[in-house]
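input
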Amino acid sequence: MAGFKFLLKILALIILAMGRYRPPAKKGSPYITPEGKQALDEELDYLWNKRRPLVVQALSAAAAEGDRSENAEYIYRKKELGEIDRRVRFLSKRVDELKVVTETPTKTDQIFFGAWVELEDDNGEMVQYRIVGPDEFDADKGFISMDSPVAKALMKKLQGDDVVIETPGGVANYYISRVQYQGFDS
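output
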């Protein structure tokens, strides 16, 4: 009997490996800054009220041209409409479950969600980050997700602390030179 259960488990693993099944992605933290919430609301509004009507209109015009199986414009617009609808569905659900964080912590020299952090590495080079929710990270702006390994290593540390962060390139040592809850001027 134990051998039979073992074979069933092996068979199930083989079927899962061969199939297209992918487990659902782990949901990110539900926190967002007021600016991030506003950006998501604006994206949702733009997609639903501006972009989608234009794509539907173009899709209708392409469909009126005749044979849809060989109509590249029709196929493209149909895919584009599907992508828009998928993003609208995601944003509609996600916006409802987000918690907008507006309060500044009482200990403003400690790193929490929403903090602007300036780090100095061993070579004296400075880098600035803002810890934000997973829906608003932007590497170009220095916004890192609170779920990222860097942000997790920084959370609850104090200004003046040294921190060791494991990166894909190896271990990096940083000194936390500044922590504040408004953007840096420099």
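quick obs: Residues 85 and 106 are 42 Å apart (CA to CA).
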